[in-house]
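Following the same procedure, backbone shapes were mapped to integers, yielding the entry below.
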Amino acid sequence: MTGSPRPVPIAPAAARTGAAPGGTRLQNVDALRGFALFGILAVNIWVFADPWYATASSNPSFTSPLDQAVRFLVLLLFETKFYVLFSFLFGYSFTLQMAAAERARASFVSRMARRQAGLLGIGILHGVLLYYGEILALYALLGAILLLCRDWSPRRAVRGAVWILAGVGLLWVVLGSLQWLEGSRDAGSTAALSKLDAFQGTALDTLGYHASHWLETFGALLILQGPSAMAMFLLGYAAGRLNVFDNPDAWRPLGQRILMYGLPIGLAGAGFYAWAAAFEPGTGVETAAFGVGQVTAPLLTAAYVVALLRIFATPVGKMLERALAPMGKIALTNYLLQSVLLGVLFTGYGLGLVDRFAPAAVLVMVPVIFAAQMALSAWWMRRHRYGPAEWLMRWLTNGKRPAWRVSRAAGVERVGV
């Protein structure tokens, strides 16, 4: 969440570490991770389906008013909003890892260093083989910075996050203004055609494209998303230190302010960014709008979180929370699985259907794919303690091989795993 939280005494160990009472797993956090995966899919699918996505030109094959409306909707509600949420939850989970290390009387620094190294390795493999725009490697590096901030107070973390967001937002607005005054515009057709050829080619063509573009894209993500991701790490860390999700009702006044002020400001900023990206791509206007979005997107994302937590408190919402939680429990596995599925659908790894579907058809695929992942996740978690990627990460983190199957005699599942 954004905004400075109200002062709360931080004396007991549970409050210092962000552990839930008794160490039980927080279902609402898992459900929010599941929701974040939906938003990530709604954005990442365009990287695979539309070679013109994120270039300075719109796809010339799909130019109807409906096509433009769908693109605008995705830009307005999804793009730049859900990696922000995922980053926030990463910071929150960092405090759960602190709690787990404290309960185990283990060195948190050693555990986290191994975990981040494992995440870096998985991220590099993911980027080179499956999705050149992946963000795990960036999270691994930023997580190392968060490790250096592990003794920060919640207030200091919030202040640090606000300064980062304000500074980077102002920087992009200034750069956009200079670009607008110069009248310069980026070009995107060459990159789009190169990607189209690779994804319509063989599996080796697709592999070559991912491998040759990963490092360059990583550098771009470091500049474009790194600062805001780091800011959200800090906000998530602050929320975890204050145990915000243990008792959301205690933070209801803050949530009300987020809905009253953050939601309209976030939507206004998102609207400006969506208009600029859809109708002024590659110009200084889009660059400046991106800077505005760096400041306002966290407000809209926070409004999503507050609204979901209130929905989860209702009888129907509790069912939704339970349905989303398995997705979030194995979020890393599901994130990687999304790249596999999208690669099979749209690239030379499978059907090669890139640039075949109108935007409305691509958007319809999102809930279909996500529903299939939800069903698979629920089935898997009834039989296994962890997803495959989570099992590997736990092994790397704790230095010992974890159990694979669910034991009938298993007790309460612990957080921070």
About this structure: DSSP finds 16 helices and no strands in the chain. Residues 25-398 form one domain. The chain has a mean pLDDT of 89. The chain has one domain: 25-398.
